[in-house]
Write a structure and sequence with these properties.
Layout lengths: L3 H29 L7 H28 L6 H26 L1 H9 L13 H67 L1 H21 L5 E2 H16 L6 E6 L8 E2 L5 H10 L7 E10 L2 E9 L6 H4 L5 H12 L4 E8 L4 E9 L2
Parallel strand pairs: 2-4
Antiparallel strand pairs: 1-3, 4-5, 5-7, 6-7
């Protein structure tokens, strides 16, 4: 794993390598091909020009682009760009005049020029300065985009964790409190069944406390949690409700975002039970070719019974958002609400590969 210090060292090395390549290609390579011994002052001027370009690059990257361009202060930024170009050309021209580079170069090459000082507008230097400013501006903008993207991703992950914590918080006070009441009542009528229910409840609490803290959970543990949830919910159902659960036979270990499947099953118990009518809840989970399929089918009732009122949960809309964030492009969710037949059907497919 790359530490912060190592990352800085690598960044510095890459910058030094890039400047060495840039300086050699644009400033030093061409004069070296002239096959003449150039005066030392010429190389001093070339190094000075490179230093000016380096200063211009980093001032633009770390100050003017973040402070002006990225804050939509286009006029001050445009003024800076113009002043920077003119100032860089002026300084480079004065280095030439101060060191008398042109005169010494004329002597080496044997070139005769009319007396008089040439203007400081050099076409090649102008293009070089514009190139450096363009690269530094693009680099600063791309770095800001990357930081913003990482920040958004981190905020989305934090939001997902908050939603998961919210889900667990809603399950705990309602579901566990009422389940404990049922287990207490069972302890007077069926001691063996109450002990089995208490064991299931303890497994669920252990799963919630320890195995949902990370971003991924073992699918087999998630399914065991759902089985315990369904079995405990059955303790509270009337005899008119039939619950059918088909679990998969897993041939290898898969990882899944914790508490991803529960809201769909919870929704079926919340809206699919009735104290007066015969109804059924069907839950099927399959894994085939690394694709998980969850199918939940139930009738829909709107009776204000106690079971429906205390079921809690974050709902299907927030679960859809979790799917979009965690399994973008790797899931398919189908929801059919057939009001004519009083039937609600959900099918979820998640690519686990």
């Amino acid at each position: 794993m790359i530490t912060g210090t190592s990352k800085k060292i690598v960044t510095i090395f890459v910058h030094l390598l890039a400047w060495a390549l840039f300086g050699y290609t644009l400033i030093f390579y061409h004069p070296l091909t002239w096959n003449v011994k150039l005066p030392n002052v010429f190389w001093v001027k070339q190094i000075a020009q490179l230093c000016i370009l380096v200063i211009l690059f980093y001032v633009n990257t770390y100050y003017f682009v973040p402070e002006y361009l990225l804050k939509n202060k286009l006029l001050p930024f445009s003024v800076f760009m113009i002043i920077s170009v003119l100032l860089a050309l002026y300084l480079m021209f004065n280095f030439d005049a101060l060191l008398h580079v042109s005169e010494q170069m004329d002597e080496v090459i044997g070139r005769r020029k009319p007396p008089g000082r040439k203007g400081f507008l050099d076409g090649f230097l102008l293009m070089t300065v514009l190139l450096v400013l363009g690269i530094s501006t693009s680099l600063a903008v791309i770095q800001r985009w990357q930081r913003d993207a990482l920040l958004r991703e981190d905020m989305e992950k934090q939001q997902i964790r908050s939603e998961l914590s919210f889900l667990k918080a809603q399950i705990n006070p309602h579901f566990f409190f009422n389940t404990l009441n049922n287990i207490y009542a069972l302890s007077f009528t069926d001691v063996a069944l109450s002990r089995d229910a208490l064991l299931k409840l303890s497994r669920m609490m252990r799963y919630l406390l320890y195995e949902t803290q990370s971003d991924k959970a073992v699918l087999n543990n998630e399914i065991s949690f759902l089985k315990d949830y369904i079995e405990l919910m059955k303790l509270r159902l009337h005899g008119s409700t039939e619950v059918i659960f088909h679990e998969p036979k897993l041939i290898k270990d898969y990882m899944i975002a914790p508490m991803m499947l529960l809201p769909f099953i919870e929704n079926a118990f919340k809206h699919g039970i009735s104290a007066f009518q015969q109804t059924s809840i069907l839950v099927e989970i399959e894994v085939e070719n690394d694709v998980l399929q969850l199918r939940v089918q139930n009738n829909v009732f709107h009776e204000k019974n106690a079971l429906a009122m205390d079921s809690g949960g974050i709902g299907l809309s927030n679960t859809r958002r979790r799917l979009d964030l965690l399994y973008s492009g790797k899931h398919q969710l189908t929801i059919e609400d057939n009001k004519a037949e009083n039937n609600f059907y959900i099918e979820l497919q998640i690519d686990m590969s």
